[in-house]
Amino acid sequence: MAGKRAFIIYAHQEPKSMNGSLKDAVVTELSSQGCQVTVSDLYAMNFEPRATRKDIVGALSNSKSFNYAAETYEAYKKGALSSDVVEEQKKVQEADLVIFQFPLYWYSVPAIMKGWIDRVLCQGFAFEPPKYFDKGSFKNKLVILSFTTAGTAEMYFKNELGGDIRYILWPIQHGVFHFCGFKILAPQISFAPEHAPEDKRKEMVTSWARRVATIWDEKPIHCISSWYFE
After folding, report:
1. Alpha-carbon distance 178 to 163, whole Å?
2. Is 172 helix (H, G, I), strand (E, B) or coil?
3. Spatial contact of 192 and 230, defined as CB atoms under 8 Å apart
4. Is the C or the N end of the chain the one with fewer CB within 10 Å?
5. The model's pTM
6. Rounded-to-10 torsion of CA 30, 32, 36, 39
């Protein structure tokens, strides 16, 4: 799909990890399609995960009581957000497809990626009431989560130890990305790569690359509560 733009937010400390291999496979596949691919390697960038006063350049709207959400909203409207946040927002704005690549930590994303979400997806940029969910700011963009787990696939069912994997995805897919209007593609889950033999690990990477080859033809999930809980 020549002319399409993809943005990968990648969080893993080791380039030779499974997550690193999955990220590299996607970059190769999308580039071969003629897509423009941008990667934010959060650990390599030493991305600041903390949401602080430093995210606002210049004077605060209310210097007596600091409210991060209110101040970043005002700063976004005035063009007064810190340069690292603005740069990441530009990458999102330009993308047709956004991919989050990460290992599942405590049923969520790694802290550095959660910090990216907290700082980059501020009000004004990522959402603006009443424009959210199906009417959200990013309703013309696709998003997909590609992640690895410690447990095997058999663990993540309703009556199993890990619970249904879709329950885990509700706060991330629905509470963050659907809220911002993204059209959500079904997740790409690589289960327990650390416990898999080498041929299975290679198949995980190949399977992801194969899927990405036709990802532009995929239809988003029907992002309502029944998809997650029934």
Report:
1. 22
2. helix
3. no
4. C
5. 0.96
6. 50
Condensed to tens digits (0 to 9), the pLDDT of residues 154-212 reads 988 887 777 899 999 999 999 999 999 999 999 999 999 999 999 999 999 999 999 99
The confidence score (pLDDT) of residue 169 equals 95
List the structure tokens of 130: 């009443």
Q: How far apart are CA 47 and CA 181, in angstroms?
A: 25
How many Å apart are CA 101 and CA 138, to the nearest integer? 19
State both tokens at 219: 């239809």
Q: 111-120 vs 83-94: helix axis angle to the nearest 10? A: 90
The full set of domain ranges for the chain reads 5-229
Q: How far apart are CA 124 and CA 129, in angstroms?
A: 9
User: Tokens standing for 87?
Assistant: 């740069």
Is the Cβ–Cβ distance between 173 and 144 less than 8 Å?
no
Tell me what pLDDT residue 159 has: 78
Q: Is the pLDDT of residue 224 over 90?
A: no
Query: Which residues is 146 bridged to in the sheet?
Result: 101, 188
- Res 84 pLDDT > 80: yes
